[in-house]
Amino acid sequence: xxxxxxxxxxxxxxxxxxxxxxxxxxxxxxxxxxxxxxxxxxxxxxxxxxxxxxxxxxxxxxxxxxxxxxxxxxxxxxxxxxxxxxxxxxxxxxxxxxxxxxxxxxxxxxxxxxxxxxxxxxxxxxxxxxxxxxxxxxxxxxxxxxxxxxxxxxxxxxxxxxxxxxxxxxxxxxxxxxxxxxxxxxxxxxxxxxxxxxx
Length: 199
Description:
Blueprint: E1 4-12, E2 16-21, E3 24-29, H1 32-37, E4 44-54, E5 57-63, H2 66-75, H3 83-92, H4 95-103, H5 107-110, H6 118-140, H7 152-163, H8 168-175, H9 186-197
Parallel strand pairs: 3-5
Antiparallel strand pairs: 1-2, 1-4, 2-3, 4-5
Helix pairs in contact: 2-3, 4-7, 7-8, 7-9, 8-9
């Protein structure tokens, strides 16, 4: 319903902020890391939002970046993962660390999060990896002449960036522009690619 909310940063709590838009205060739940980056109370802010509606709960969840929003929405697709757990994940690890953990089946990183045990971490990896593979196949259908150096690090980076919501074609176009990409580790490729993709 709301793509984003832009207004005056009015107040904050442990896990939420209040943003005033033309005299209406929107209570928006956010990861702690996002609240810390929001700036000073009284400043004008813009928050990317997810409008959550259930029979007994209508809430707004907010994020500084579209990557954070994408990861939050992906996590809600995993069975047994709710909004509170998704916020805990984004309060503990960054979106690209999460996506890298999924792609590399890094259960240890995911279990650092309060409320995520080994079984839940394995479920996240399994369900999201399958979704990414399906989306890759659909996105590449009809796409021609994409040149990318074939290496494990590059393939991992491409898959991790897909978790953040970017298309295979856009990712590969950007990776082709990065100098000396074949000599970089996966994390460095992701960081460099995000600089291009965020423009």
